[in-house]
Amino acid sequence: MSQHAESSQHTEPSPHTERSQQARPKKQQTQPAPSDIKRWRQYLADERAEAAVYRDLAQNRQGEERDILLALAEAEGRHEAHWLALLGDRAGKPRPASIRSRLLGFLARHFGSVFVLALAQRAEGRSPYAKDPNATDAMAADEQIHEEVVRGLATRGRNRLAGTFRAAVFGANDGLVSNLSLVMGMAASGVASSVVLLSGIAGLLAGAISMGAGEFISVRSQRELLAATRPTQVTLLAAPKLDLEHNELLLVYLARGMTQEAAEHRVAERMGLLPCDCDPSLSLQPELPDVENQHEAVGTAWGAALSSFCFFASGAVVPILPFVFGLTGVAALVVAGVLVGIALLITGATVGLLSGTSPLTRGLRQLAIGLGAAAVTYLLGLVFGTVVH
Question: Rounded to two decimals, what is the model's pTM?
Answer without folding.
Answer: 0.57
